[in-house]
Amino acid sequence: MATRNLILAFETSCDETSIAVVEDGKTILSNIVATQIDSHKRFGGVVPEVASRHHIEQITRCLDEALTTAEVTYDDLTAVAVTYGPGLVGALLIGVTAAKTVAFAHHLPLIPVNHMAGHIYAGRFVSEFEFPQMALLVSGGHTELVYIKSENEFEILGETRDDAAGEAYDKIGRVLGVNYPAGKTIDTWAHEGNDTFEFPRAMEKDASYDFSFSGLKSAFINTVHNAEQRGVELNKQDLAASFQQSVVDVLAEKTDRALDRYPVKQLVLAGGVAANLGLRERIERDMQERHPDTKLIMAPIKLCGDNGAMVGAAGYVAYQHQQRAEMNLNADPGLSF
Ligand code: KG4
Ligand code: ZN
């Protein structure tokens, strides 16, 4: 019988194969991340079939390494947690199948984890959670404002109606010749330029908490193409700064209004785009000035992108709430809260 609460957590929803061992939902004993970025770069984005193949090739090695690094054996484990959605169906299935196999072979409970809940729980490595809580989730596939009334009780207040913020970064990055994923480079350039283009801020002032980034993306791409046709070279740093300012303005404005309407104890900033320094600086400043009584929890930059540790932290909470999956657990690519 295990005396420590050790969760083995699998994450394969997109282009990272990651397996972690997490103790008590808050201590990372190992967090192995095998990225596939080099394989997807030349296609300018994630190719689902290539992603699945990579997961198959990497998962056994990641599993061995996660256990070895954590200095534990299967006998020490309490449960197995796995992301079963949202994400790419073929990619999710590799993690789900591997997690089921381990759980079945070693008679361990299987815990189903929502990938977006995982992103939120990356914040758990920074601070204890208190509720009610709000999360601004910004990733390559999602942009959501989530109200968390109490532990494990999620409600989406608003979400993107078209592109996710990260997706927009990757698409405009491609136009500037930046390899996938483009977010980090655009962020760096943005700090070296100025908002001279004043791109649209879609839905910034409307009453909903929804977002839209495809108009911004089109405005950006049209600006670059028009200049190219006229033989004019635009300053990449200014383009990046203008794009980023537009994204950050809308995210910050909507978050601010949601916090006015739904007072909470904590705001969690998480997801791949939460690694953006411009966004972190802006939200930090806004919170100090406008919501000083709400504690800001920013996921550590290293844990903003997809990783198994966040799944282990979310899995720990789900485990305590008696959430269990059977051996017929399937991937759910469109899973919502
Ligand atoms: O959460 P994540 O790892 O995967 C999904 O669940 O989608 O997010 C990946 C996204 C990519 O679109 C990437 O360009 C973006 O996060 N990203 C950034 C930064 N670092 C990663 N976007 C803006 N600024 C960054 N520093
Ligand atoms: Zn993600």
Provide a brief overview of the structure.
The chain is α/β, with parallel strands linked by helices and 337 residues long. The chain has 10 helices and 10 strands. It folds into 2 domains: 133 residues, 2-Layer Sandwich (Nucleotidyltransferase, domain 5), CATH 3.30.420; 171 residues, ATPase, nucleotide binding domain (Nucleotidyltransferase, domain 5, 2-Layer Sandwich).
Characterise this structure.
There is one protein chain. A hairpin with a 4-residue loop joins strand 6 and strand 7. The chain has a 5-stranded mixed beta sheet, sandwiched between helices. The two termini are 33 Å apart. Helix 2 packs parallel to helix 3 (89-105) and helix 6 packs across helix 8 (236-261). With 337 residues, it is an alpha/beta fold. The mean pLDDT is 96. The chain has helices at residues 37-41, 48-70, 89-105, 115-121, 165-175, 183-190, 214-229, 236-261, 277-290, 308-320, and strands spanning 6-11, 16-23, 27-35, 79-85, 110-114, 133-138, 143-148, 154-159, 266-270, 295-298. It folds into 2 domains: 6-121 and 304-320, 2-Layer Sandwich (Nucleotidyltransferase, domain 5), CATH 3.30.420.40; 128-298, 2-Layer Sandwich (Nucleotidyltransferase, domain 5), CATH 3.30.420.40. It binds 5'-O-[(R)-(carboxyoxy)(hydroxy)phosphoryl]adenosine and zinc ion (ZN). Residues 115, 119, 139, 272, 306 line the site of zinc ion.
